[in-house]
């Protein structure tokens, strides 16, 4: 049987928007449950805002490919503790690392928990979309989710979008 949690606010998604809201609400005295199925920090930290700005900064300073991507990884590692589960639990936020699904008008299931909140915020972010272009399945495709990970320097690159 699921454990029932009652709270003022349930935030689904721990990207930049969800984290900001959860921290602010908790600091203002609200009881907060934060549900995230992936990494705390979401797209902004791992494949969006932070790595793209770190890459631009390194490139503006004249860094080569390997040095620029090392700078990206160091920047993510430096910021990640600010978005960590431990930090948010220290702020009084109950963090649940599970998928969330609404089971009723005012209830959400997440793992072994049923959450009943006065208010819900969906901050689930986005995912990349590869357009269905002829021949695209025949070539390696990078998205924002794969570009900043283990990527050797390409000899050429076409950017769509």
What does this structure look like?
This protein is α/β, with parallel strands linked by helices and 161 residues long. It has a single domain (3-127), classed as FAD/NAD(P)-binding domain (3-Layer(bba) Sandwich). It contains six helices and six strands. It has helices at 16-27, 42-46, 49-60, 65-79, 85-90, 144-147; strands at 3-12, 32-35, 94-96, 101-104, 107-110, 113-122. Strands 3-2-1-6-5-4 form a six-stranded mixed β-sheet. A hairpin with a 2-residue loop joins strand 4 and strand 5 (107-110). Helix 3 crosses helix 4.
Provide a count of the helices.
Answer: 6
Compute the gyration radius: what is it? 19 Å
On the 0-100 scale, what is the average pLDDT? Answer: 94
Strand content: 15-25%
Shape: globular
Largest β sheet strand count, sense and barrel closure: 6 strands, mixed
List keywords for this structure.
161 residues; alpha/beta; FAD/NAD(P)-binding domain; 34% helix
